From TrEMBL:
GO terms for molecular function: nucleic acid binding. InterPro entries: Integrase_cat-core (IPR001584), Retrovirus_Pol_polyprotein (IPR050951), RNaseH-like_sf (IPR012337), RNaseH_sf (IPR036397). Signal peptide: none annotated. One of its GO terms (biological process) is DNA integration. This is Integrase catalytic domain-containing protein. Residues 1-59 form the Integrase catalytic domain. It comes from the Eukaryota.
Length: 185
């Protein structure tokens, strides 16, 4: 399993780099400054903030923004204190928004998830993760759970090939039950 946020970031960056790169994708590294500037000056859904503003305490000045022809800079002895307070406020708002988004993601994730419990000795099938096409076998086994490492991690042993053992997580395990031979009278 991987970190979903990192995967999402990589997908975003890859798409932006591909859009700006040449056909052979040989100049992708020349595009990085533009892509990262674009990423850091856009409002992020999770935080509701612009990363540039969170870092520098001001909105970014973009090339197409209207500039005043004359700029006057004034000295403010309280500037550092005001900037720190503003950055603290932005950070707190971002933290609150992140927690709200995490709760939404968790609710969406949990909505259709069961919380199976597995015990030592139970028979399970293990999902095959590297399927090539839709007609491939989806599960292998049966395996017997031989050891419980944590609430979601187990060691399983193949029933017919005892030398085949795997460490797996419960998200790729499917419980099965043994048939009982019923003798007719």
């Amino acid at each position: 399993m991987t970190n979903g946020q990192i995967e999402r970031f990589n997908a975003t960056m890859d798409a932006k780099i591909a859009a700006l790169s040449n056909e052979k994708r040989t100049n992708w590294d020349d595009q990085l400054p533009f892509v990262t500037f674009n990423y850091n000056t856009s409002i992020h859904t999770t935080t509701g903030q612009i990363p540039f503003e969170l870092m520098h305490g001001r909105s970014p000045i973009l090339p197409f923004d209207q500039q005043q022809p004359l700029i006057t800079l004034s000295q403010d002895p309280e500037h550092r204190l005001k900037l720190n307070q503003y950055l603290s406020t932005l950070t707190e708002q971002a933290k609150i928004k992140i927690l709200e988004q995490q709760e939404k993601y968790k609710q969406r994730y949990d909505q259709h998830r069961s919380n199976p419990t597995h015990t030592i000795g139970e028979l399970v099938l293990i999902k095959i993760l590297n399927m090539r096409n839709k007609f491939d076998v989806r599960y292998e086994g049966p395996f017997r759970i031989t050891q419980k490492l944590s609430t979601k991690t187990f060691i399983v042993q193949h029933v017919k090939i005892p030398t085949l053992m795997k460490q797996v997580t419960s998200d790729i395990m499917m419980s099965i039950t043994q048939r009982r031979n019923i003798k007719s009278k």
